[in-house]
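Need a sequence for this fold. Nothing fancy.
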């Protein structure tokens, strides 16, 4: 998220806060809930596509990561 910190790292009256800090907090919370390290999202690559008519074995959430609670 370097560009977010570069462009949005100051208090914004319209936002009523610092957007970069809030986005970083949301990212950190999402990684923690999914038990992901900081490098996991960067290393993620999509798996092979499923054959027509087949569903993946585990439902995936946004960008292919399992939804929170799916693997518990």
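Here you go.
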């Amino acid at each position: 998220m370097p560009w977010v910190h570069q462009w949005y790292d100051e208090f914004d009256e319209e936002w009523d806060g610092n957007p970069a800090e809030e986005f970083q907090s949301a990212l950190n919370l999402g990684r923690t809930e999914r038990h992901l390290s900081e490098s996991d999202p960067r290393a993620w690559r999509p798996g092979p596509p499923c054959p027509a008519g087949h569903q993946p074995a585990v439902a995936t959430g946004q960008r292919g990561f399992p939804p929170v609670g799916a693997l518990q």
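For context: Helices lie at 2-8, 19-33, 40-43.
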